[in-house]
Amino acid sequence: MAANVEDYSEVLLSFGNAVEDQEFLNELQFRLWSELLQRPTRNLQFPGSQPVSFARQHLDALEREDYYVCEKSDGVRYLLYYTSPYGRPTAYLIDRNFNCRELSGLTCPGKMKGTIHTDTLLDGELIYERSSDGGAFHFLIFDALLISGANIMRHPLPRRLQYVQNDVVAPLKAKLQGDVGFAYPFKLDMKSMSKPYAIAQILELEIPQQQHGNDGLIFTPVSDPYISGTCERLLKWKPSELNSVDFKLIINAKASAGKTYELHVASRDSHRFFGYHRPDEKLDQFDQTVIECRYCPDEEEYHWEYIRNRLDKNSANYERVVDKIVESIKDNVTSQELIERIPAIRRAWKAREARGVKEVRGVREVKEIKEVREVRGVRDPRDNREVQDPRDNREV
């Protein structure tokens, strides 16, 4: 795996200016969550989708269903939100704590000449890409929730990515090439997605050549809608030595056995004790914060070892998530096992492709129907709802 970006983590987390006005932050969160995404106000939370750890059972899932695979960049996860509060166009980076950092005055040109994106929400990763001239920051987009105010979450992944490429990335690149006075604080581009039988190429050729950190693979279901919160079908594979858990560190200086370093996981509205970290005074500065730890199976007493402080999180992993991570660690699906499954995955993909049938939210969809959906004024036969054109909110 490529080297990590620990040296740049604080920089990646400090892009733009933190929105500290709590009333204004609440307004942004409410508008995004309740008005645009139409989610219940009582469950106000980070809108991004969260993967589950890859377990042995998921090897069969890669054969049964269509997935795209991409490398898992070791950067900082953000939602990039273009909007115009009080008529003032700007952009925000939204972290997993649902906090916002303003990129003052940053705009993105729309597909139609003279327009800019408003209420567009992109999902991606901010990374630092090294190069011979010193390197640069990149925002890699791997999904989208809103395009110009239209909710595209229910569309399958290829359609969502197509909207990003045609309506966001292409117009921005044209603007950057044609207007020397127009600048961006990072390079914005699509993340490379491949069919799942390209696993070996990604692991053996692409990742070793990358100039940014990597800690695994992400498998995204092709036909599913975008799911906010934990998505059981969005899969995160890591080599066993990189599998980790985010704990809340609580140092108990009054323990009868002396100072202890307790690791807690999230449970409902609080945290509960999970285990201990080896006593280490270097960790005293991280008391009451979230730290990332790797599993050490050979240790008799202390099974978790500190990796880094998670400045981008204010809550530990939930106990159910931790259970799945531990299951993934025990299953220990290796890269070689993934590669050995490639012939079967490819045969199954090609067989479905030859039949011309895809699974979309449990409904079998034939190629001819998919083509009909592109005709303006025709309803989506999958759910009898009108498909919205994100560019202008008209029916397509």
TrEMBL record:
Its EC number is 2.7.7.50. The keyword Chloroplast does not apply. One of its GO terms (molecular function) is ATP binding. Residues 50-238 form the mRNA capping enzyme adenylation domain. It is an enzyme of class 2 (transferase). Keywords: GTP-binding, mRNA capping, mRNA processing, Nucleotide-binding, Nucleotidyltransferase, Nucleus, Transferase. GO terms for biological process: 7-methylguanosine mRNA capping; positive regulation of transcription by RNA polymerase II; tRNA processing. The keyword Nucleotide-binding applies. GO terms for cellular component: mRNA capping enzyme complex. It comes from the Eukaryota. It comes from Paramicrosporidium saccamoebae. Residues 243-339 form the mRNA capping enzyme C-terminal domain. This is mRNA guanylyltransferase. InterPro entries: mRNA_cap_enzyme_adenylation, mRNA_cap_enzyme_C, mRNA_Capping_Enz/RNA_Phosphat, NA-bd_OB-fold. It catalyses: a 5'-end diphospho-ribonucleoside in mRNA + GTP + H(+) = a 5'-end (5'-triphosphoguanosine)-ribonucleoside in mRNA + diphosphate. It is found in: Nucleus.
